[in-house]
Write a structure and sequence with these properties.
CATH topology of the largest domain: Trna Endonuclease, Chain: A, domain 1
Oligomer: single chain
Distance between the termini: 33 Å
Largest sheet: 6 strands, mixed
Strand order of the largest sheet: 7-8-9-12-14-15
Shape: globular
Low-confidence stretches: none
Number of helices: 3
Helix content: 10-25%
Number of strands: 15
Strand content: 35-45%
Structural class: alpha+beta
CATH architecture of the largest domain: 3-Layer(aba) Sandwich
Length: about 230
Amino acid sequence: MKFPQALIEGRLIRRYKRFLADVQLPGEVVTASCPNTGAMLGCAAAGSRVWLSEHDNAGRKYRHTWQIVEAGEVMIGINTGLPNKLVEEAIVDGVIPELGGYATLRREVAYGEEASRVDFVLDGGRRKSCYVEVKNVTAAVKNGVALFPDCVSDRGSRHLRELMRIKAAGLRPVQLYCVQRADVGEVRPADAIDAEYGRTLREAIDAGVEVLAYRARVTPSEIRIETRIPVVCP
């Protein structure tokens, strides 16, 4: 996914109220919208280099949107609104072979017993209908380990329960982690942050839910899914 316009580089002053960030740009300080409601562990340190998109829609309260942060030597995509676009592009381009061979792709389909919406339903071909839930991963610890979630995620646990029901119904459920940073080699459940999510993930795997993780390369001009990495549940 290429950004339609060049991003603007700045320095993060602070992130606050979850949805806002003050950023120092050349000659001015702007308040940008922050499209990530999570804890943003390791991604919101004051002074970090950040990149913003700019919009000319007069109806927007905040003209800028925070897209990327640099943590150490890696660029991280923090916009949780992008992973579905990234995954759809990767499916169409054949980058995720596990999700290939389907004739149609439907987005945001209502399903389940807990009033959920699944990100994608893939139909057609010779395979069972596939329900794909996408999660954005930005948090990481040392030794190249990415973690999900970065805060307690009741919604994430609910989606895993729904996927287990999809499996019980004879269809194909997939939990896909979209890792928007290129410096990690595996994804693990963040048990110390949300033990219930970790427990539910292990239960889902035991029940036959497929779990995939794909890593993206992030630059100020483009974010693109490139490489599958393992999901490890010790």
